[in-house]
Write a structure and sequence with these properties.
Low-confidence stretches: none
Number of strands: 10
Order of helices and strands: EEHHHEEEEHEEEEH
Shape: elongated
Radius of gyration: 22 Å
Strand order of the largest sheet: 1-2
Number of helices: 5
Structural class: alpha+beta
């Protein structure tokens, strides 16, 4: 079976062999795995980026600065499960070599099993579901809009059985004894505003 050659210059986790095929770079693959793992552990894209920078890890382009858009692209890229979506962009002007994002103007082709995967398919699919879950803005029982807070793994998961509001993690100081507790938001926010 012949493999497709994926057009890329710098693609975190992979290098090219002499024939232009994608080959896993083990050191960079660990960075990709870390990004997926931390995202599923509840880290925000900002916190993942900050952690990579703090550890002195360079991007696929060899830059020290990580952007959330870079983390987002890595989490959404099908190449990490060994697949390839062809014609994400296309050339509009062959003289100037101008490329634009394909929004349905030219057909796209999805190829499964094109190269060795870094991320197992089931992990990738869990990340895709989590990306959707975090994007959804929930309306609480009292009509307030609540968005995902990725500071803690239980955010938006613990719901009050009495009023239907979400619980929030807070620092509790009871007579000098400090602890962290989860409380219903309706008990924390002032009423009648």
């Amino acid at each position: 079976m012949s493999r497709l050659q994926v057009n890329h210059n710098r693609f975190l986790g992979y290098t090219k062999d002499e024939e232009g095929n994608l080959v896993i770079d083990p050191e960079q693959a660990e960075i990709v795995k870390r990004i997926y793992r931390e995202y599923l552990e509840g880290y925000s894209m900002d916190k993942i980026a900050a952690g990579l920078e703090a550890d002195g890890i360079l991007t696929g382009a060899g830059k020290p600065r990580w952007h959330t858009s870079t983390i987002n692209k890595i989490l959404r890229n099908e190449k990490y499960i060994g697949d390839a979506l062809l014609q994400k962009t296309y050339t509009t002007d062959f003289l100037n070599k101008t490329r634009v994002k394909n929004t349905g103007i030219v057909p796209q082709y999805y190829v499964e099993g094109n190269h060795e995967a870094i991320i197992p398919r089931e992990i990738y699919m869990r990340v895709q579901e989590e990306l959707v879950r975090r994007r959804v803005v929930k309306t609480s029982a009292n009509g307030k809009k609540r968005s995902y807070s990725c500071n803690h793994c239980f955010s938006q998961i613990i719901i009050c059985g009495d009023c239907g509001e979400m619980f929030r993690r807070i620092h509790w100081n009871n007579r000098g004894c400090k602890s962290i507790v989860w409380r219903c938001i309706s008990k924390l926010e002032p009423t009648g505003l």
